[in-house]
């Protein structure tokens, strides 16, 4: 394929690959890239939706990339996807959803990596950088009800669960909060992609209910499966829930510059606060932690953080607010406050 292009510095690997080169966008300084640009992602339906959404934003920002079919998807099997019979906390934590993808990025087998930001470690591997965050979808959790659940009561989100009902989840954050509200409930582990978990709840012998992120349901056209959408006051979401993040190699300044054009400033502010909260708490995947930031009508950033015991016997929730430019500081301060006043065993 031959592509006309203005003069500019060539991508260092372009000649070696024998690939065409082009100026990526008129909105940033002209530069040359080898094609195709390889985009790494998990292979789940939700991950692929998020990747294609990201590519749609990039090609809208820079139409020439669409016209020359500049991108190539690479679905990468991750340890987190392969291991379905154990909690992530027992096999290495949520970083298992990114480990193999970041290995491919570091090795140069891919150029971008697209993630659900809540699945990324707070400390990324050396040489890898969070290049941009995309506009946040609804951050709330939703109850998915099976045939054995009761009627929905808008005034009480958990009233649809009969005494002793079984709730399926692998999330200690969700488990701790629902047991704090309803100690009579029983928890069973279910894992898998969105549709798999819905199918398990719909089965006649399945749990009475499960909890899923509303963002994922919406993106897959499954919002109707949400019987109850939980207010963040009733169920503090996971930090960065509903936000898509894109990582690249730190040295790849051309792609960093390109991706700055689709960065969502609000998503960056709230995710910075929430990730700083996580870093300050420094909990393991066995530590129930919630974090939810939002911008208020007056422009201030409001951040809520939560720590708890997995059995719901202890739960501490606090909030603070300040300027969005201070997002990282707010996250650290709130995290330090929660850690100071929570029992030490929570972080063991």
Description:
This protein has 348 residues and is of the alpha/beta class. 29% of the residues lie in helices and 21% in strands. The strands form four sheets. The chain has a five-stranded mixed sheet, sandwiched between helices. A five-stranded mixed sheet has the order 9-8-10-7-11. A hairpin with a 5-residue loop joins strand 13 (289-295) and strand 14 (301-308). The N and C termini lie far apart (57 Å).
Compact overview of the structure:
This protein has eleven helices and 15 strands. By secondary structure, the chain is α/β, with parallel strands linked by helices. A hairpin with a 6-residue loop joins strand 14 and strand 15.
Secondary structure topology:
Blueprint: H1 14-17, E1 21-23, E2 32-34, E3 37-41, H2 45-61, H3 63-67, E4 71-75, H4 79-82, H5 99-106, E5 112-116, E6 128-133, E7 141-145, E8 166-168, H6 172-181, E9 186-188, H7 194-202, E10 209-213, H8 214-219, E11 228-229, E12 244-249, H9 253-259, H10 265-281, E13 289-295, E14 301-308, E15 315-322, H11 327-341
Parallel strand pairs: 3-4, 3-5, 8-9, 8-10
Antiparallel strand pairs: 1-2, 5-12, 6-12, 7-10, 7-11, 13-14, 14-15
Helix pairs in contact: 10-11
